[in-house]
Amino acid sequence: MSEADLARARVIDLPLVDTLNPRPAFLPPSVPADLLDRLLVLHGHPGAWWVGQLIGFLMRLSEEGQETVGAKGREHGAEESPVVGIHVRRSDKVENKNRLRSEI
Known about the structure:
Layout: H1 3-8, H2 33-42, H3 46-58, H4 63-75, H5 92-103
């Protein structure tokens, strides 16, 4: 990404919910009131569904990004065999919890 692209980029800051001050009226797992009744019928945990939809929307690739990822996948044979990814989470969650507790 060039400097000009970075200057034009729209950035959404998603801080840790526990650190927000003042605390907003609506936080995950808040679900829009007009959707809640229908979601309760269709999903066992509407808050999880809603957050998943929101994150999926925020993290979607641009057309150029989709083309780049597709080209890299074809380059590495992703169309011919399954691709498996594993994320190993280390101790960051424990460290963040301890840090947050000490700030209270």
